């Protein structure tokens, strides 16, 4: 996470997005760097039949939008607030100037982008497999590895996603996700506490 003083030094503004607000839409030119102060943002697309595919969910202390800034291309997906969210929004020219003048921040941003590419590399083989348990557990284990220190200081990690969101991120129907999670629970690969998946 880039500290707020540095972001504000380069002209970032704190912007509030209400639930279901679009931060940006698929096809828009990439013009800003975004860092989440609070709330959750999902990166998604909608198919012709209105079926949603969620690429990722970004949460507090995470950023998004960098790859399209580096490539100078239009957004390939939407960014939508899942709840009331506050974001630091920094124009692209200021973002690149900040990276040029602060090499340690540049390394941090590149590491963050690399993490996301790594996740896509992990998920790609499993998205094409018919094994729903493998798809779901790959996603859950990745979330635990990357969100646990932020979300929970204990050894248990609570997955803050609905069954529908898990389906949208793995390409599975929600009914399949529900059946798969029940099977994983019976195999003692996860627990359900107050309706939440816990690893």
TrEMBL record:
Keyword line: DNA-binding, Transcription, Transcription regulation
GO molecular function: DNA binding
HTH crp-type domain mapped to chain residues: 130-199
Domain called Cyclic nucleotide-binding: residue spans: 17-116
Keyword Plastid appears in the UniProt entry: no
Keyword DNA-binding: yes
Entry-linked Pfam families: cNMP_binding (PF00027), HTH_Crp_2 (PF13545)
InterPro entries per the UniProt record, alphabetical: cNMP-bd_dom, cNMP-bd_dom_sf, HTH_CRP, RmlC-like_jellyroll, WH_DNA-bd_sf
Record GO biological process: regulation of DNA-templated transcription
Record-given protein name: cAMP-binding domain of CRP or a regulatory subunit of cAMP-dependent protein kinases
């Amino acid at each position: 996470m880039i500290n707020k003083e540095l972001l504000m030094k380069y002209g970032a503004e704190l912007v509030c997005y209400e639930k279901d607000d679009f931060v940006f839409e698929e096809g828009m030119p990439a013009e800003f760097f975004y860092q989440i102060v609070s709330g959750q943002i999902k990166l998604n697309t909608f198919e012709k039949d209105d079926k949603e595919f969620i690429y990722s969910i970004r949460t507090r202390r995470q950023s998004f939008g960098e790859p399209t800034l580096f490539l100078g291309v239009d957004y390939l997906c939407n960014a939508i607030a899942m709840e009331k969210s506050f974001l630091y929004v920094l124009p692209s020219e200021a973002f690149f100037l900040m990276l040029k003048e602060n090499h340690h921040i540049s390394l941090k941003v590149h590491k963050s982008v690399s993490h996301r590419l790594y996740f896509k590399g992990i998920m790609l083989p499993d998205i094409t497999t018919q094994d729903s348990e493998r798809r779901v557990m790959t996603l859950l284990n990745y979330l635990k590895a990357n969100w646990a220190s932020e979300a929970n200081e204990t050894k248990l990690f609570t997955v803050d996603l609905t069954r529908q969101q898990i389906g949208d991120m793995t390409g599975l129907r929600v009914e399949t996700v529900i059946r798969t999670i029940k099977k994983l629970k019976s195999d003692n690969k996860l627990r359900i506490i107050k309706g939440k998946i816990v690893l």
